[in-house]
Amino acid sequence: MVDVSSFRNAMAMLGGAVTVITTDGVAGRFGFTASAVCSVTDSPPTLLVCMNRSSHSNEHFKRNGAVCVNILCGDHQEMSGAFANRTLTMDERFAVTQWTTLESGAPVMIDALVNFDCRIAQVHEVGSHSIFYCEIQTIRQGNADEGLVYFNRAYHRLGEASKAC
Predict the structure, then answer these.
(1) Strand-pair category, 19-23 with 154-159
(2) What is the CATH number of the domain that holds 145?
(3) Over 60: is that where the pLDDT of 142 sits?
(4) Less Cβ crowding at N or C end of the chain, within 10 Å?
(5) Which pLDDT score, from 0 to 100, does residue 159 have?
(6) Residue 91 three-state SS
(7) Is residue 164 in a domain?
(8) Residues 76-128: pLDDT tens digits?
(9) How far apart (Å, rounded) are the C-alpha atoms in residues 107 and 104?
(10) Which Gene3D superfamilies match (predicted)?
């Protein structure tokens, strides 16, 4: 079996879009930064989101049953840091930018690159993480032309200016 350190070092070379995952409902308003998000199927349109089972927010996301996957723009590195900072309260995290809601009731970041407003259709527990299968209810496109990705343990901006010739 591969050791954890080798696995983490190898996975650092797999770039991923930086997102802020949010929820609100009977269990309250919560959010966290994630790059472990990907599409599952387009019929029905479904994403998966991975969240550490030891996270204080984990059970709250399950109880609310609603999430918004907010894909961050190139200039949202500070936002990513705020939602990854365990010393900040949820109110402090959400105070960093403006929010609205769509169909699910989960907080939707107004200036995100894209918002996927979802309901949690299924949850699977695998090792240290919960995998949320999120059926998309509404998609909202922003106006930015640059995305934020995490690769090799660093943030990078991708967009028109960063395309190769």
Answers:
(1) unpaired
(2) 2.30.110.10
(3) yes
(4) C
(5) 87
(6) helix
(7) no
(8) 999 999 999 999 999 999 999 999 999 999 999 999 999 999 999 999 999 99
(9) 9
(10) Electron Transport, Fmn-binding Protein, Chain A
Q: What is the number of structural domains in the chain?
A: 1
Pairwise CA distance, residues 110 & 137, whole Å: 17
Q: Residue type at 10?
A: A
Whether the ω angle into residue 44 lies within 30 degrees of 0, i.e. cis, is: yes
Is the pLDDT at 132 greater than 80, yes or no?
Answer: yes
Nearest by Cα to 82 from 22, 133, 128, 15 = 22
Say if CB 72 and CB 20 are below 8 A apart.
Answer: yes
In a domain, 145, yes or no: yes
The b/e string for 86-100 (b: 16+ C-beta within 10 A; e otherwise) is: eeeebeebbebbebe
For residue 151 the two structure tokens come to 């690769």
pLDDT at 32 over 80: yes
- Whether 97 maps to a domain, the answer reads yes
Residue 80 lies in a domain: yes
Query: What does the pLDDT read at residue 115?
Result: 98
Q: How many CB atoms lie within 10 A of CB 82?
A: 19
Please list, residue by residue across 47-69, b when 16 or more beta carbons sit within 10 angstroms of its beta carbon and e when fewer do: bbbbbeeeeebbebbeebbbbbb
